[in-house]
Amino acid sequence: MHPTRLTAAVAALALSASLATALAGSAAAAPQPQPVPPGHGKSLALAAADTAAASGLDELRHGADEDLVRTSVTPWSNGLYYTAYQRTYKGLPVHGGGDAVVLSDSSGKVRDVTGAAAPSLRLSTGAKVTAGAALATARGQLAAVESASTPELTVLLKGGKPVLAWHTLVVGTTAGKLPGSLDTYVDARTGKIAQATDKVRHADGRGYHNGNVTIDTAAGSMTDTSRGGFKCGGQNGSAYTGSSPWGNGGANDLVTACVDIMYAAQRESDMLKEWFGYNGINGQGGMVPARAGLSQVNAYYDGTKTTYGRNQNGTNQLTGIDVVAHEYGHEIFDRTPGSAGSSNENGGMNESTGDIFGALTEHYANNPNDTPDYTVGEKLNFTGNNQPIRNMYNPSLINNDPNCYTQLTSGTEVHAAAGPQNHWFYLLAEGSNPGGGKPSSPICSGGPSSVTGIGIQKAGKIFMGALLLKTSSWNHPAARRATLTTAKNTYGATECNAVKAAWNAVGVPAQSGETDCGGTSTPDFSLSLNPSSGSAQPDSFVTATVNTTTTGGAAQTVQLTASGAPSGVDVSFSPASVTSGTSSTMTAKVAAGTPHGTYPITVTGTGSATHTVTYQLTVGTSTPPTGCANAEHTYRGTLASGQAAAQPDGSYYYSASAGTHVGCLRAPAGTDFDLYLQKWNGAGWADVAVGGTAGADEDTSYYGTAGYYRYVVHAYSGSGAYTLGLSAP
Q1: What percent of the chain has pLDDT over 70?
Q2: pLDDT for 596-615, tens place per residue?
Q3: Tens digits of per-residue pLDDT, 411-457?
Q4: Domain Peptidase M4, which positions (predicted)?
Q5: Cα–Cα distances in Å, from 562 out to 61, 246, 340, 530, 580?
Q6: How large is the C-alpha radius of gyration of the chain?
Q7: H/E element holding 527?
Q8: Which among 705, 635, 686 is positioned nearest to 21, based on CA atoms?
Q9: Cis peptide before 37, with omega less than 30 degrees from 0?
Q10: Which of 51, 600, 678, 703 could covalently link to 528 via disulfide, CB atoms 3.0 to 4.6 Å apart?
Q11: Helix (H, G, I), strand (E, B), or coil: what is residue 117?
Q12: Are 476 and 501 in contact (CB under 8 A)?
């Protein structure tokens, strides 16, 4: 038995969106379909997302040696779930493209998919440079190294081309005594630096800025165990010790600075939970530690911590609410799907994300010592001119930063590049002429005559939801699509149209495939394949089920076609057109003499919209083994190493009476496949019988009461076709 590998592979298998069809055999012997178990909305959503990923729906298309591995699941309003995936190639993580997010709901429908573009991958995965040599090269970029992560072999997409590389994060200081946190890829063949991106994002008790406030700490140290061990201390990384009340209220007392830091960070974490239902800064209830006392005019986040210095005149520490929340806004950007990119536009949107969360936290805290506004660092006198460092309602008022998307260039400095998205957020939250003493905001050329705001809390929730659709190719057009999708699915037409108007007002144009904000549901459907891959010998055939789901409006007719099949393979559908919500059988007939190999076949569904999925056909190289002839019901499939599949047919079955469940698994010689019988316990699937020997064949027998059951086949090592036989009471 292999519990470690099982956890990773089988976690991706959720309750399917519909019951398995009645199994082959007599009605008396076959497990009969029953109503689905209660409390399974999340499982339905994840099953829909996983099926979309496995099927290569639309932007999720991937090659034969590639997989989309689920990395995070975030619950949202209205029964929605954001599920993020990382692309892998022959088991290695792919960075720089190919990552994806699926938005699905608790009824098992896919609402939206987004994926970062990536080329088809083909490269050797053998490294010529050792991990140790790569780490030494990476460490050599900094004059002093504080920490370095263990190198991981990856595939880096650089300039649209794959590079086998060792990936590590090196944190320390440069020769110029500046902080550095270099996200580094060392070419695994040449040993040279392939790419290095600095993750440092600067902000150019008795608190000083916030007055006497309440913070959460341990009795004897500035450690917050309720938020993942969050702590604040000096430059050595240790939390300050002492007792309440913390600090003396002095402008340059560092314990006082930590009071301000902890107050702002904790309010930001609370805001995320109370306003958006999001679990804290890192999505898991915690956040990186903080350090006060940097002897520079700077504050920054480097992926491992936040650090705060002093202002230009040395009159106070840079620990105001908006600055602290800005730095932890970088962690939010970094920890949501797609992480942080390397382009100036992506960097500008990262800076803007920090500014937006600074404004949100000020409004949530509503502290009379730092009244809510839409400027950044206005209390801190950062540079000695008594001016804020950025303005969200009119970015051009500070250093003539760009107000409009059309003003951005590839060379726009990242802090200035925050302007367009900051401007958009203010317009969405407050509008162009909000009144009530709030400043008016200009509209860019070609925009609407005015914009009406929807309030900062709604605007913030829409923005947070959009970050959960972020991929590594994040830019302003992608943000427009994501915020429209989130607004429509979280609130409705009014808020969706407000999002659209605000983007129009800053010059980000409409995008192909963006959400229709109409008050009624736009007709749409989704496609999936079961299974999404299969094999056949020449002069034979293989089948798969093409499932359709109505995701918007009324059911519609969907025409099915296929493309990309090699010479000698004929693909047909029965029926060739279906009503969304029903299925068709796809048959791939392989003629004698068809060359062996693996071929991606694109299945296209055409209705009010067009969607595609990808079937991976292997010709001649894999034959399902035999040996389960006495089973009542037989299922076959193909798995790559590390993958898992639920049976029957990706779903489960119901046994109405107690009795013995017998499973028989036969896999290719030389592989190690495992078999798990699971029973639904009202909240999740629990193992009740396991065949986990270090071999290709497994047999299980379990006497159980009436209930819902399924088998999970796990390819622990090795790949190929398998046969599963099962008998049930």
Answers
A1: 92
A2: 888 999 999 999 999 999 99
A3: 899 999 999 999 999 999 999 999 999 999 999 999 999 999 999 99
A4: 206-333
A5: 15, 68, 37, 16, 18
A6: 28
A7: strand 524-530
A8: 635
A9: no
A10: 51
A11: coil
A12: no
pLDDT tens string 139-162: 999 999 999 999 999 999 998 899
| Distance in angstroms (rounded) separating the CA atoms of residues 560 and 539 | 24
Instruction: Write down the mean pLDDT value for the chain.
Output: 89
Distance, in Å, from the CA atom of 119 to the CA atom of 131, rounded to the nearest integer, reads 26
Please give the distance of CA 552 from its chain centroid, rounded to a whole number: 24
> Which pLDDT score, from 0 to 100, does residue 406 have?
95
Report the DSSP pairing between strands 290-292 and 306-308. parallel
Q: What is the mean pLDDT of residues 719-723?
A: 83
- In this structure, what are the phi and psi dihedrals at residue 360, rounded to the nearest 5 degrees? -60, -45
- pLDDT at 28 > cutoff 60: no
Q: Which amino acid is at 642?
A: G
Nearest to 702 by CA among 678, 685, 724: 678
- 10-24 per-residue burial string, b: 16 or more CB within 10 A, e: under 16: bebbbbbbbbbeebe
- Residues 437/438/442/448 CA torsion (nearest 10 deg): -100
3-state secondary structure of 335: helix
- pLDDT exceeds 70 at position 24: no
Joined together, the tokens standing for residue 728 give 């049930």
Cα dihedral across residues 57, 61, 64, 66: positive or negative: negative
Torsional sign, CA 140, 141, 143, 144? negative
Residue type, 369: N
352 in Cβ contact with 421 (< 8 Å): yes
- Give all strands (DSSP E) within 135-288, no chain letters: 144-148, 152-158, 161-173, 179-187, 193-198, 201-202, 223-224, 230-233
Please name the residue that has the structure tokens 């590390």.
Answer: 642
Instruction: Provide the token pair at 210.
Output: 């916030």
pTM for this prediction = 0.78
DSSP-based three-state secondary structure for 524: strand
355 vs 367: CA distance, rounded Å: 18
Tokens for 400? 């003539």
What are 301's two structure tokens?
A: 């986040």
- Cα distances (Å, whole numbers) of residue 108 to 14, 47, 77, 162: 11, 7, 15, 35
Q: Cβ distance 227 to 280 under 8 Å?
A: yes
Copy the structure tokens of residue 380: 């801190």
**Per-residue pLDDT, 453:** 98
Distance, CA of 354 to CA of 323 (rounded, Å) = 8
| For residue 721, pLDDT beyond 90 | no
DSSP string, 248-273: ---TT-HHHHHHHHHHHHHHHHHHHH
Q: What is the pLDDT of residue 20?
A: 31
**Measured over all CA atoms, what is the biggest interatomic distance in the chain, rounded to whole angstroms?**
86
573: buried, middle or exposed (CB in 10 Å: 19+, 13-18, 0-12)? middle
Cα separation values, 416 from 312, 326, 392, 593, Å: 20, 15, 11, 62
CB 73 within 8 A of CB 9: no
pLDDT at 207: 62
CB 89 within 8 A of CB 154: no
What are the pLDDT digits (tens) for 83-126? 999 999 999 999 999 999 999 999 899 999 999 988 889 899 99
Number of neighbours of residue 192 by Cβ within 10 angstroms: 11
pLDDT at 26 over 60: no
